[in-house]
Fold this sequence. Notes:
single chain, 347 residues, Metallo-beta-lactamase, Chain A, Arc Repressor Mutant, subunit A, 4-stranded mixed beta sheet, 10 helices, 14 strands, binds zinc ion
Amino acid sequence: MKKKTRRRPYAEQRPQDLGGGVWSVPVPIPGNPLGYTLVYAVESPRGPVLVDAGWNHPDAWEALSGGLASLGLDVSEVAGVVVTHFHPDHAGLAGQVRDASGAWIAMHESDAALVRLMIEYAASEQDGFQSDMLRRAGADPSEVRDVMGTRPTPPAAPDRELRDGDLVDLQGRKLRAVHTPGHTPGHICLHLEDADRLFTGDHVLPDITPHIGIYPYDRDDIDPLGDFMESLDRVGELVPLELDAIEALPAHEWIFPDVAARAAEIRHHHEEKLDRLRALLAQRPEPLTIWEVAAMMTWNRPWDDLAPMLKGMAAGEAAAHLRALEARGQVRRVSGVDPVRFQALDS
Ligand SMILES: [Zn+2]
């Protein structure tokens, strides 16, 4: 049974004036079924501040700068870019916006730390190691450049780091960072408190749910799914008493009226998934590997039909669900075996 989606292709998306000094610009993600990132601009006396920037690609840059221009905004006047999380469809173009305008880039300190690691890693001997290997194999310099160039470049390092509750530098408005870890450790939603709107990034989307995984799979010192579910509750708690709902401005799909209702629905979806997984494990008394568990779970197509990369991501999700059940005392990790295995606990 396939649910009908309201999702429309990028070709049908248009830049929009959302009123109250907020605009949206769809920015394509080439070759990705998600289609586009919704980049938002918020008016300020020093120039617009962007929420996310889009994928780093010439077509995306064209769409962003052209889309802003069609709304009467100039990319060279952007005052700042606040990034909901470090993923390339959000942070990718931030560096080019900064180059064009002198804007600052801000993100949560936890994602900023990851970006610094990625930049260090890309610049380290790892790079030399790979290009050396290619050269020694007889690749000519242009081929070495081509191969090295296909690796994704890390996002630009931020100039400012945000923590939970910080106000973004936006004169005359109140835009507050709400730390919502789960999809990434430093994911933030941005609450435009003077207009009762919430920029939700990937945290709360109207139809799909973000990927929540653990990498490496066998880490036991973090609980991203537990964090994500708490972050969903946090978003529900933002609605002021005198209001029925806060409007959600997500980074993908479409704008929707009630962020708390959708957050509760996503939380319910994961609670059910955890219950089903626990029931599955209870039927199989022997300890199972993460891979075995992933193959038993329900995905959007049969396990055997999943492309290898998607199997890898499914295993990451399975690991996150196992870890969440472990944190709740419902599953135990069998230590001292390789690969690591999990087993249901009676309760
Ligand atoms: Zn993302």
